[in-house]
Amino acid sequence: MPEKSEEQTALEKYLEFIRKLDLDQLKYELSSELGPLSGEVLGELDKEIIPPRIKVRISEDGMEAYINVVYPGKPSSLSLNLLREQLKANGVIKGYLEENLERIIDGKVYDQDVLAARGKLPESGKDGYITVLVNRGEDPEDYIDARGRVDFKRMRLKNVVQRGEVIAERTPAVAGINGYLVNGKELHSKAVNEAEFRLNPDVGLAPDNQLKLLALKDGVFFPDFTIRDINIIEGNISYATGNVRYEKSLIIRGDVKSGFSVECGENVDIYRCVEDATVTAGGDVIVKEGFLGTGKGVIKGKNVTVGHIKQQKAEAVEDIVVGGEVMYGELLAGGIIKVMGIKGIVIGGSLIAGKGIEVANAGNTQNVKTLLCAGYNNEIIVQDRKLEELDNYVHKVFNSVQIFRAAGSMEKLSLKTRGILQRLMKTKEALNEEITLLKTQRENEITAIVEREKPTIKVTGTVFPGVTIQIGNLKIYVTKEIRNKIFICHKGRIVEVAASSLSRGKK
Fold it and tell me: Which domain of life is it from (predicted)?
């Protein structure tokens, strides 16, 4: 095929130019540039009526429509109605942006896309929900008065309700608002769900307000909206009642006297004191006054709250809160231990907690030995006791071997006696292996607790000499008074920081 000459190539370009030439647009541009002279230049063409050229484009998602006035017409006949008609003719019937359309007319915005209509996304509604109003556990700090004194007498067990009490409210669902595309197609909002009360013989709707749920009996409220009975004992646990064992919740409006026991499957609320007695609960224990005795009393529960403690033991799976002094007590908690208020002093004994300790003062001017230990738990204490037991066995084996050595030459011993010695040596070896294994497990567990819980010991008042501060395996022995400090583990050692610079959030 012969090659095209330069003249042929140029001609083809000119022809392409002519094919694409828009005469109406050319007239418009000349009129715009020449102004009053356009009539002289264009002659009779000026008198020709040229309709506007308008393009409409809809976005792929149908949420936006654009209008482009390529040429306003001659004489110009643009109007808002004309623009609306063009949009409608192209399937755009909702969401007109009138301000943008007016801008095209007033500002003579030509030959460019202008957003002319916008759809609307559907607005989500809100599902209905139930708000439970039952006391889920009171904050002990609410019972500290302006003078720093703590009074737990008004505290009650969590989830305890009385007949006629409003225990829950229902908030109805709020329907969403439908949206639309610019072509008018409706976009439906997501359906919402209504919340419904779980009605049963224990609860019922309020007669004057169907959005409120009432307790129909006294008792303990549970998440399934049932109310279980509470056993109420008017008076003391003593010879008049004997030991008490109850699978549900219990209220004792008196003391628990020395030598008696209370075993409760759920929560127990003791209005007065516990002496040298045993109180065990599957739930929480509240002792509104004191826990006093000669060291023979034990309280165990999920959470334990006591007015004050003297020479007694308290254990909690989670937290222990004391509203006054702890004198020579032994407290063990998997969570935190708080000794609150102006009387929140700890003298003697030990406080051991997994997550942290907070007290007002620790020790006294008599340098009484007192232990504050965080980053420990019951499992580690069990391991410590086991290690102590094994050490005692090792010591006994060692003494036995020494007796054999004192007896003289092995050749003088009978076969039976030699057999005993060999068994002693093997026992010693096995015990040492078990001790090594337990120590490794213990170290790993303590390290994990400290890294996970980052336990702290906070003393808002004074730490006196004689107090031991322990976090995990780290210890410091206080030899001079320290005031208003938080003790933390940092880079393998215990350091002090000002109590105001670091605070432990409420649980």
Answer: Bacteria
